[in-house]
C-alpha cells in the first residue's frame, strides 16, 4: 500500500509567519504534487516535482515555494503566510508510467488556518 | 492551460437510482480522464479512469464515457447506495506529463 504522510494535520499560524508543510511518500514515486482544496474551487495545483531538486509551477504558485532535496520528501513553504492562504493542503505522489499519467495517491491533508 | 468544468455541484438521489456527473475540458491534447472520490474527512481516491483511445469503461456499478469530439466525459453510478455519498472530482491530463487539472467537484448525497 502506498503511504503518503503529511506531518501536520492541523496548523494555526499568524499573518507573516513562515510555514512549512512536509510530505513524505514511501513508494519511491518520482512525481510529487501540492494541491490546495477550497469549497467550490476543487483541487488546484500549486507546485509539482518530477525528480529530486526539480520543481515546476502549477496553476496557483504565487505566495508559495517548494523544496525537494530527497526523492521521498516534498515540502511546501509559505514564506509569509496571509489569511487568504487559509485552506486544506493536499500532497500527492504518482509513479511515472512511460508517457502515461499515473494514479495520484494523496495524503490525508493539512488544514492551515492563518489568523 | 487546461480548464475543466464540472456539473452539477450538488446532486441528491434516492437509494437505488442512478447518478450522472458531467465534465467538459478545453485542451484537445488531453487524453487521460480520471475520477476521484473523496468521502467526508478522507483523502481523494481514484475510482475509475479512461484514456482517449476508448469511449467507455465500466467497473461494476460505475462507468465513464468520453466524447473527444465534444470534449466532455461523464461518470455514471447505477443502483446507488448510501456509501456512494461523497464528493466526486473529475480531472484531465495531456498525458505527456503527470499534471492533472481537476474540476470543482460534485457533492453526491444518496438518501434512503
Cα Rg of chain A:
13 Å
Order of helices and strands of chain A: EEEEEEEEEEE
Record field, number of beta strands of chain B: 11
Q: Into which percentage range does the β-strand content of chain B fall?
A: over 45%
On the 0 to 100 scale, the average pLDDT of chain B is 93
- Give a short account of the largest sheet of chain A: 7 strands, mixed
The geometry of chain A reads as: globular
Helix content of chain A: under 10%
Largest sheet of chain B: 6 strands, mixed
Largest interface: A-B, 26 and 26 residues
- List segments of chain B where confidence is low: pLDDT < 50 over at least 5 consecutive residues: none
Determine the N-to-C terminus distance of chain B: 41 Å
Task: Name the structural class of chain B.
Answer: mainly beta
Radius of gyration of chain B, taken over Cα atoms and rounded to an integer in Å: 13 Å
Please count the helical segments of chain B: 0
Description:
The complex is a heterodimer of chains A (115) and B (112). With 115 residues, chain A is an all-beta fold. Helix content of chain A is 0%, strand content 51%. Chain A is built from no helices and 11 strands. Chain A has strands spanning 4-6, 10-13, 19-25, 31-38, 42-49, 56-57, 65-70, 73-78, 87-94, 105-106, 110-114. In chain A, a hairpin with a 3-residue loop joins strand 4 and strand 5. The radius of gyration of chain A is 13 Å and the shape is globular. Chain A starts with a strand and ends with a strand. The model of chain A has no long low-confidence stretch (mean pLDDT 92). In chain B, strands 2, 4, 5, 9, 10 and 11 form a 6-stranded mixed β-sheet that branches. By secondary structure, chain B is mostly beta strands. Helix content of chain B is 0%, strand content 54%.
